[in-house]
Structures are given as structure tokens and as C-alpha cells.
Amino acid sequence: MSEHTAEHTADPPAAGGLRGSLGVAGVVFLVVAAASPLVAIGGALPVMMAIGSGAGAPVSYIAVTVVLLLFSVGYAEMSRHVREAGAFYSYVTAGLGPVLGTGSAGLALLSYTAVQAAVYGLAGAVLGSTVTGFGGPDLPWWVWGGILLALVAVLGYRSVDLGIRVLAVLIVLEVGTVAALAGAVLLRGGADGLNAVPFTPGAFLSGSPGIGLMFAVACFIGFEATAVYGQEAREPHRTVPRATYTAVLVIGGFYTLVSWALVMAVGAGNARAAAVDDIDGLVFSVAERYAGTPLAAALQILLLTSLFTALLAFHNTVARYVYALGGRGGALAPLGRAHPVHGSPHAASLAQTCTAAVLIGVFAATGMDPVAQVFTWMSGLATLGVLMLMVLVSIAVVVFFGRGWRRGRPWRTRVAPILAVVGLVGTVVLVLANFTTLIDGSAGLAVMLVLLLCAAFAVGAVSALSGRTMETDDSGSVG
Asked: 234 to each of 25, 257, 334, 399, how far by Cα in Å?
């Protein structure tokens, strides 16, 4: 690839593209929404305590936060030069070329579509059980999933500024309520008094730390979406880097604090047994004991809003990936157009709505369990896919800034990204070693899902190669 071509990759889109006025707080709200704190604390954390590192769960969050901060250094630096809505795809293209870049786009689309499908399964099941619990009709999970899909479609079609207003209110309520629970536990001193046992090496290594790290990574999926909103942010060269660091620190710090409080609530020596005995309702039973019935009931309701905000955030991410791909031309060109009034990727948003509807229909028609199969299998697929993408991006950062015509500070452009590659590859190895635990399936299913990720990458790469071959046939040279 010539220098001219690489520089063009980093150019911002032409006027008339996506529009918005997001600041650091707005981008962070979108990212925290995708991370879905209450789903992570209410769903993933008890599992981490039960089959992972037990009382040492807080260390899992700290370790993952450190690795993601290293990744964020190069990621944020790249955002100053590449401002397309494709984020991972655009960054890999800028650093490693269009073939690997388009391959990463296929991997990203599959990963984010999978995690959105996972959340639709869980959200449909939770909403259905909640409605039934209040005396409402007992309908299949996919009916409730379809209702949520319609709401997400409306907000996703409009300007991101509208969606952020909805997310901001819901996220403040969600985080505030969980923080109140943690505060109540800490003020009352927990079951055996407050202590630092969860932060000791012995606690972290007492069970299966690899599984703990694996679930901790899953809790962070969505943090990397800061760069996706570069075109819709005020002063993106400042907003995106600041939002990236802020998101990682806020999410990591919040998870660490709340996980420590939950361990203290049941006692460090009893953490694993308490989680095994009540893995589905541990957080709610702790809330009932330490903060009373009203807060426990509020957490039940806010779990639904947490799932909804995650759906909207992931929908926005996928729509902007498709929009960025459409902006490159080819068969997806009609999806690379912004709405003339809303300044939103409306065509890509509609396409993503249709894709999600088809997946919900397939899962429903095949009788898949919305939690045990749809949620666990799809979230496992997404966790591994996003980790693979981050490895590619970190390598792309080193290559991009290693060219003679593009320089940067060594810590930001070489040292931190290389350390991130080491940490991320180690995490990928741990995820693969425990993949069947994450998806709660057989070794054959695990192999099939890994091959599906490889196939998505290969399809993207081959499509890029085909496009270059056609261009060579037409013009006699590859552009």
C-alpha cells in the first residue's frame, strides 16, 4: 500500500456524514451502557465467584483493567489519526492493509451481532419472567425480545443525541442503585468485617483464575466503542482518547469496588459456597439483607433497563461498522449513507434491525433456550472474537506508527501496544482453555464456534482480495 493510500484511509468522512454533539460524558455513557454494569454484577460476578477465583474476583477485574488500559494507549493514539466509524476495522485497515482490515470487519460484525443476540435472549427471558411475576401474560421470550427490538430500532434510526438522553437517565439510575448497595454493605461492615483478603494472591489463585479472567473480559465488552462515535463527537481528537481512558477506569473501578463489597457481604471464606448456593439471585438476596426490599425490587427492575441500554449500545456499534463498510463502496454502498435530517446511519441501522429479527426468529424456531443456549453460546463467541480483534488492533498500531512518514511517542505507539499484545494473547489462551465452561457446551460446539469466527474473518479478507483483483483487471494496477 502506498503512503498516499494509507493517508487516505485515515481521512475523516466527507461533509454530510454522521452528525452529533457528543462530549466525553456522552461517549462514556454509551460505552458504560454496552458494558451493562448490572448484568455484569448480577449475572457474571456470581459465576466468577462460584467457578472462577472465588473471593479473589476483584483481582480479576483489576488484571483485566490493566491490560485494557495498555490497549487503550495505542487505541486512543490511533483515534487522533483515523476517525471513521469503523473503529477496529478502520484501525486494522490503516495499519495492516485492506485485506486484513476487511477480515477484521467480518470478525467484528459477527462478534457484535452475536453479543447483541445474546442480550436479546437474556432480556426476553428476564422481561417475560418479570411481567409474569407481576401477574401479566405468560408469553414466549421471543415476543418480549421483539418488543425490545422495535424500541431499539426507533432509537437507533434517529440521531445518537436522542439515544444518549435515554441512556443517560437509565445508566445514572442503574449505577447509583448498585453503588447504594455496595455502600450499604460497606457501612454495615459485611458478614465478617471489612478486610483485604479478596486482594491477596492466595484468594485469587484459590480456584480457577483463568475462568475468573475470562468472565471479567466478558464484562468489559463494549468499552472499545469510544472510537465508533468519533464522527459524532465534539473535538474527536480530544473526546475519543479521554473517553477511552475514562471508560476503562470507570468500569474497572466500579466492578472492583462492587465485587469487593459483594464478597464482604457474604464473607471471604464463604464467597464460593454462597455463590454456588444462589448463583442466580445472590446480588438480589444481598440487597434484601443489607439494604431492604425496596432496593432489591429496584435492582430487579433496573436489570431490565440495563439489558435494554446494552441492546441499544450494541445496535449503535454494529450500525456504525456497517456504515463505515458501506462508505468504502461496493455491494454495501447503499448502507453507507447518513440520514439527511438526523445525521444517523439510518440505512445501516435498519439492516442491523433486520439481522437481529432474523436471528431471534431462528433461535425461536429451533427451540433454543434463551439463557442456557442463546445467551451463553453467543456471549462466548463474542468474547473470543473481541479479544482477537484487540490483538489485531494493537499490532496495527505498532505497524502504523512504525512507518517513516508517521511518528509518535514510543510509549504510545510501540511499548504499550506491544505489552497489550502480550496481555491479550495470554487472555486469549486462557479463554480457549476454558471456552467450553464459558459456553456451557461440548468440545465439538466450542470448535464449531471458533471455526465460525475464523470463517467470518476469512470471508472479509477474501472479499477484499476479490475487490483488489477486479480493480487490477479493470485498471491494470491495484489502487
From this structure: 11, 31, 27, 28
| Cβ neighbours, 10 Å, residue 183 | 14
The three-class DSSP label of residue 22 is strand
Who's near 370: CB < 8 A, 6+ residues apart? 121, 122, 124, 125, 141, 142, 145, 363
Nearest in space to 360 (alpha carbons), one of 120, 39, 162? 120
Q: How far apart are CA 310 and CA 307, in angstroms?
A: 5
Cα gap 180→38, rounded to integer Å: 13
Nearest to 224 by CA among 418, 30, 10, 454: 30
Q: Which 3 state secondary structure label does DSSP give 233?
A: strand
pTM higher than 0.70: yes
Q: Give the residue among 468, 32, 479 at the shortest CA–CA distance from 243.
A: 32
Is the domain 3-467 a CATH 2.30.30.100 member? no
Whether the CB-CB separation of 222 and 88 falls below 8 Å is answered with no
- pLDDT, tens digit only, all 479 positions of the chain: 333 333 434 334 434 455 555 667 777 776 777 677 888 888 789 888 988 889 999 999 999 999 999 999 998 888 778 766 556 888 899 999 999 998 998 898 899 889 889 889 988 988 888 888 788 899 999 999 999 999 988 887 776 555 566 677 778 888 889 999 999 999 999 999 999 999 999 999 887 888 888 888 888 887 776 766 666 666 666 777 888 888 899 899 999 999 999 999 999 999 999 998 888 788 989 999 999 999 988 998 888 888 888 888 788 878 877 777 776 666 666 776 766 665 667 788 888 899 999 999 999 999 998 987 888 888 888 888 989 999 999 999 999 998 865 666 889 899 999 999 999 999 888 888 877 776 666 788 888 989 999 999 999 899 888 765 444 444 443 33
Helix (H), strand (E) counts: the chain: 21, 0
The C-alpha atoms of residue 203 and residue 127 are separated, in whole angstroms, by 36
Q: What is the DSSP annotation of 220-273?
A: HTTGGGGGGGGGGBSSHHHHHHHHHHHHHHHHHHHHHHHHHHHHHHH-GGGHHH
Beta bridge partners of 233: 22
Look-up of cell digits 511517542: 409
Local structure of 206: helix, strand or coil: coil
Phi and psi (nearest 5°) for 14?
-70, 165
